[in-house]
Q: What sequence folds into this?
């Protein structure tokens, strides 16, 4: 099996097959993260595709092949944030697939919990959702979240804290009023 660094070097020289192998392993995670950030399946596909096109176009300029995955995550998050800015007034929704759990837990309670999390995420700004998704969904440490978003680690920590605080308070707030976003008149 060829290591990631070798594939990146080959892709930098224009090897389409090497690039396909690289992104094939990451495309599902990128799409999942994009869905959580944008809250819309179609927009998530657009953002993921845009990130992959940018990756192919800008790959020769990548200085550190070992940082390919973090770089690709950053491109995907930036593509999501760009799309969110362009579609600021459009309400964005996402269907969350049912989580299949092997345990015999209270299904009604888990559905209610998922609904509460979905409502809380929906009310966050895309920048805040990006931090939550990168840290909790993709499992990146905060230092890598900061690197991916191009912000200082302290800023990532404070955004995560503010987002979690807003999500905790979302249950008490009006669910139709987005957190931190202005309502159209």
A:
């Amino acid at each position: 099996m060829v290591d990631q660094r070798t594939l990146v070097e080959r892709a930098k020289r224009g090897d389409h097959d090497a690039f396909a192998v690289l992104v094939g392993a990451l495309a599902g995670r990128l799409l999942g993260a994009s869905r959580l950030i944008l809250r819309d399946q179609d927009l998530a596909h657009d953002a993921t595709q845009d990130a992959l096109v940018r990756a192919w176009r800008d790959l020769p300029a990548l200085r550190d092949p070992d940082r390919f995955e973090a770089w690709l995550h950053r491109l995907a998050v930036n593509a999501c944030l760009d799309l969110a800015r362009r579609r600021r007034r459009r309400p964005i929704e996402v269907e969350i697939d049912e989580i299949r759990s092997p345990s015999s837990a209270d299904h009604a309670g888990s559905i209610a919990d998922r609904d509460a999390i979905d409502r809380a995420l929906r009310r966050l700004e895309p920048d805040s959702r990006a931090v939550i998704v990168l840290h909790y969904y993709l499992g990146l440490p905060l230092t890598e979240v900061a690197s991916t978003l191009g912000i200082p680690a302290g800023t990532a920590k404070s955004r995560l804290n503010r987002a979690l605080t807003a999500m905790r308070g979302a249950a008490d707030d009006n669910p139709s009023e987005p957190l931190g976003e202005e309502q159209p008149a």
About this structure: The CA atoms of residues 50 and 79 lie 6 Å apart.
